[in-house]
Specification:
The protein is of the alpha/beta class. The protein folds into five domains: 9-150, no CATH class; 161-394 and 564-657 and 665-701, Rossmann fold, CATH 3.40.50.200; 401-559, Glucose Oxidase, domain 1 (3-Layer(bba) Sandwich), CATH 3.50.30; 710-742, no CATH class; 750-842, Immunoglobulin-like, CATH 2.60.40. The protein contains 20 helices and 39 strands. Strands 6, 7, 10, 12, 14, 15, 25, 26, 29 and 30 form a ten-stranded mixed sheet that branches. A seven-stranded mixed sheet has the order 17-16-24-18-19-20-21, with helices on both faces. The chain is globular and about 90 Å long. It starts with 13 loop residues before the first helix and ends with a strand. Mean pLDDT is 85; it is low at 1-38, 61-78 and 160-178. The structure holds 2-acetamido-2-deoxy-beta-D-glucopyranose. 2-acetamido-2-deoxy-beta-D-glucopyranose binds next to α7. Residues 745-841 form the Subtilisin-like protease fibronectin type-III domain. It is found in: Secreted. InterPro entries: Peptidase_S8/S53_dom, Peptidase_S8/S53_dom_sf, Peptidase_S8_Asp-AS, Peptidase_S8_Ser-AS, Peptidase_S8_subtilisin-rel, Peptidases_S8_3, S8pro/Inhibitor_I9, SBT. Residues 85-155 form the Inhibitor I9 domain.
């Protein structure tokens, strides 16, 4: 068979490679019938099988399996042929891949029409199909198969801490950008789907979203995701559940076989990246300000591959990424990751997801991924590779302050994201235990206010009920929603909540409530309230109350103030050092890369999401996690790409990380929350292993001055320093150069040594992206156990063809140590650009 081939070294560009749509789903499985039949009862799991021919994104005419039949087209030939012709060749190559896949499988299974869970041709050349362990092993030995990897699970990177108020609005104020930010950009969101009826994604009332020719995605419609759901703002919507279905975890009743979000997480992340500008946040009827995505004019392309409770299976996630890149998204936002480094390859960088993402980057798509929520412990990052931008979560030090003003004019400070008691009146206080009707129900603790039936309604009506927050609210069945319901049913004026211990108080998660509410998370302030109550509440000898003399009013806890205080690395945010293998050996690549707000973020929610009971039935929710931080970065990337359409993923990501803030507005270093037993987080200076380069700075990122450029071959060369040439060839279809070099040669805006022995040279090349020449001076804050010098340390960088400058950094261990230490290299430009790169070294040896 003759295969059309492209010119040697000619790389496929996204613009036309996406003309080929990869094949969709084929839902039946390969059942090896008579031939190779597995022993009865042997369990089948879904595996991804990767073939030796290169996928469409890496196809360049140099195909191992086709050498000999190849006809290489010259550059001249390529230029003289039409786009339509080239796209025809890609179509033919796609057909060839499919034929080869089928030929190899039928060769193995012994019959012709083996059907797959998935067929992939775009990002990877493979199939997903159910196999027994035995079949998987035998398939992996097939000469035309390079790897066989068992499906693994990925999860939403959310923690169940509710969110932080008004941040998108605050970010908008800081970015100063128009509501047109992100125009004509498509952000692909691989998540739990989307609620198409949400005002954050409404097209009506917005400047019309015209057709976008570069995007070729489609929408999967269903009864619950009707026509019209894709409205221009939502420009594509697909779902991928074949593996989840095969694995038995998919339940159509709650997961929906459509792009509809049955969880809330996907709508939330999409609204943070690209939700409409100025959408009122209404929760339980109360307004909490306005929400906006970071790039409110960007389009949203939805690839649903995660499901409520169960997370996602990697074959579904890869199918989603494969489709997103084939459709032509500009940015891929992944608020997901495994719980631990997945196995299957010798290197974390060669795990099947990272290989697919490498090819997405090759197709010019920037990939942004959550760093994970395994913090504050070391080596918990679950986003590994240098071609992926990994996002840590920052927490603002804002608390939702509220006050309880007492009848004796005392004031107790607490927390409460809730309205004030009505009017200027003082209301009598009543302790829940004093309000129990009759004998009560011994199965229920009256102090947690979970059932209205327990209390004497006449006694409670018009009073502020004092309830107690205990571990029942954390691990037991007690909920704040039930508490609010009790207060409403009883006609109480509001609720003041004590804690039964500091430990329980430390676990209180802020959620908005619709009834007047305040909580005192420390036992000291709780005791102040109780003492006041006891002093003014008169009881007879039997303990029966004679008069309620303690009175109070609850302040308004809903007022929003954006404090602009510095972010701290949230305790849950996963930490470096990054790991290069499954023994958790440290890697020479920095992770995470940058920090963005990820604590108590208001975002769109779907009323049918039951994932978090606090937000069931609501259209907005406050969520925390690196999941929430990730779409902030995806949104900024869309703004950047709209401004600089020709920038590579490496350039976009470099602009965001080199301009990140490392200090607060007063110049104090940013801090990280460490592990602590009680409610007060232990703070320490944030290192690059906590926050990467620092906190995202939208304004600065839009004008970075210098960038660090890297492309596919650089990443492959990096991989060659991490794995055998055979492994690299198998996964990337690209041969290693004769001299692989060192991982630290990769031109990224960070320098990381897991093991520094003596002195090492680290080359870097910067590219001037400002329109004029600029003189830069390099300064270095040195570390405890090593020194860094730069050559040259002063240079003037031009524009046009003279816009590059090579620099060699010398990193020398000055003291043997196994403790991590850090330095920072700062390029200060004469025109005001400041470019920073972090240096981190784990082990140091003098020779
Ligand atoms: C699917 O979910 C529904 C709703 O929770 C439940 O009633 C049903 O039993 C589930 N089906 C399966 C097969 O688990």
């Amino acid at each position: 068979m003759r295969i059309p081939e492209f010119g040697r070294g000619w790389r496929i560009q996204t613009s036309w490679l996406v003309l080929v749509l990869t094949l969709g789903l084929a839902l039946l499985s390969c059942e090896a019938k008579e031939y190779n039949a597995p022993p009865d009862g042997q369990k089948k799991d879904v595996y991804i099988v990767i073939f030796e021919d290169m996928p469409i994104v890496t196809y360049n005419g140099k195909i191992t399996g086709l050498r000999g039949t190849a006809k290489y087209f010259s550059e001249k030939w390529r230029k003289s042929h039409k786009r339509a012709h080239i796209s025809d060749l890609v179509k033919k190559y796609n057909e060839y891949l499919i034929k080869e896949q089928d030929a190899i499988l039928s060769d193995f299974f012994g019959f012709g029409d083996c059907e797959k869970t998935y067929r992939y041709t775009h990002l990877v050349n493979g199939v997903a199909l159910p196999l027994t362990a035995d079949e998987a092993l035998r398939l992996s030995e097939h000469p035309k198969i390079v790897r066989v990897e068992k499906s693994y699970k990925v999860y939403k990177s959310t923690v169940h801490t509710p969110d932080y108020l008004g941040l998108p609005k605050g970010m908008w104020a800081r970015s100063g950008g128009p509501a047109g930010a992100g125009e004509n950009m498509v952000i692909g969101i691989v998540d739990t789907g989307i609620d198409p009826t949400h005002p954050s994604f409404a097209a009506r009332g917005q400047k019309p979203y015209g057709p976008l020719r570069k995007f070729r995605g489609t929408c999967d419609y269903a009864r619950e995701f009707p026509r019209g759901s894709c409205n221009g703002k939502i420009i594509g919507a697909r779902f991928f559940n074949a593996a989840a279905k095969r694995e038995g975890s998919f339940n159509a009743t709650i997961h929906f076989a459509s792009p509809l979000d049955g969880d809330g997480h996907g709508s939330h992340t999409a609204s943070t990246a690209a939700g409409n500008y100025g959408v009122p946040v209404v929760f339980n009827g109360a307004r909490y300000g306005l929400a906006s995505g970071v790039a409110p004019r960007a389009r949203v392309a939805v690839y649903k591959a995660l499901y409520r409770y169960i997370g996602g299976s990697i074959p579904d996630v890869i199918a989603a990424c494969n489709q997103a890149v084939a459709d032509g998204v500009d940015i891929l936002s992944l608020s997901l990751g495994p719980n631990a480094p997945p196995g299957g390859a010798t290197s974390t960088f060669l795990n099947i997801l990272d290989v697919a993402l490498l090819n997405a980057v090759k197709a010019n798509v920037l990939v942004v991924q959550a760093a994970g929520n395994g913090g504050p412990f070391a080596k918990t990052v679950t986003s590994f590779s240098p071609w992926v931008l990994s996002v840590a979560a920052g927490q603002d030090d804002r608390v939702f302050r509220n006050t309880l003003t007492l009848g004796n004019r005392g004031v107790i400070r607490g927390t409460g994201l809730a309205p004030a008691t009505k009017g200027a009146y003082l209301y009598p206080l009543i302790l829940a235990d004093d309000a129990v009707a009759g004998k009560g129900d011994p199965a229920l603790t009256p102090s947690s206010c979970q059932a209205a039936s327990l209390y004497n309604r006449l006694l409670v009506r018009g009073k502020i009920l004092i309830c107690t927050f205990s571990f029942d609210f954390v691990y037991g069945g007690a909920t704040m929603q039930q508490l609010a319901k009790t207060v409403k049913t009883l006609g109480a004026a509001g609720v003041a909540m004590m804690v039964d211990s500091d430990n329980a108080g430390g676990k209180y998660e802020v959620i908005p409530l619709s009834v007047p509410f305040i909580i005192f998370p420390s036992s000291a302030s709780s005791n102040t309230l109780l003492a006041y109550y006891n002093r003014y509440t008169k009881k007879d000898r039997k303990g029966k109350i004679i008069s309620f003399g303690a009175t109070a009013k609850i302040g308004n806890g809903q007022t929003m103030t954006y404090t602009r205080s510095a972010q701290q690395v949230a305790s849950f945010s996963s930490r470096g050092p990054n790991v290069k293998d499954f023994n958790f050996d440290e890697a020479d690549i920095l992770k995470p890369n940058v920090m963005a707000p990820g604590y108590l973020i208001w975002g769109a929610w779907t009323p049918i999401g039951t994932d978090n009971p606090a937000f069931t039935g609501q259209r907005f929710a406050m969520m925390s996690g690196t999941s929430m931080a990730t779409p902030h970065v995806a949104g900024l990337a869309a703004m950047l790409k709209a401004k600089y359409p020709r920038w590579s993923p490496a350039a976009l990501s470099s602009a965001m990380v080199t301009t990140a803030d490392v200090a607060d507005r007063q110049g104090r270093p940013l801090q990280a929350q460490g592990a602590s037993a009680d409610s007060t987080p232990f703070l320490q200076a944030a290192t690059p292993f906590d926050m990467g380069s620092g906190a995202l700075n939208i304004q600065a990122a839009l004008n970075p001055g210098l960038i660090f450029e890297a492309g596919h071959l650089d990443y492959v060369k990096f991989l060659c320093s991490q794995a055998t040439p055979r492994e690299v060839l198998g996964s990337t279809k690209t041969a290693c150069p004769v001299r692989a070099g060192m991982a630290t040669d990769l031109n990224i805006p960070s320098i990381t040594f897991a093991n520094l022995v003596g002195t090492k040279l680290v080359p870097r090349t910067v590219t001037n992206v400002a329109p004029v020449a600029e003189k830069y001076t390099i300064t270095i804050t040195n570390a405890r156990d090593f020194v860094v010098t730069a050559n040259p340390s002063v240079f003037t960088i031009g524009v046009g063809r003279r816009n590059k400058q090579a620099i060699v950094f010398t990193v020398r261990a000055t003291r043997a140590s196994q403790a991590s230490s850090f330095a920072r290299i700062t390029f200060t430009g004469s025109l005001g650009h400041v470019v920073r790169i972090p240096v981190s070294v784990v082990n140091k040896r003098l020779r």
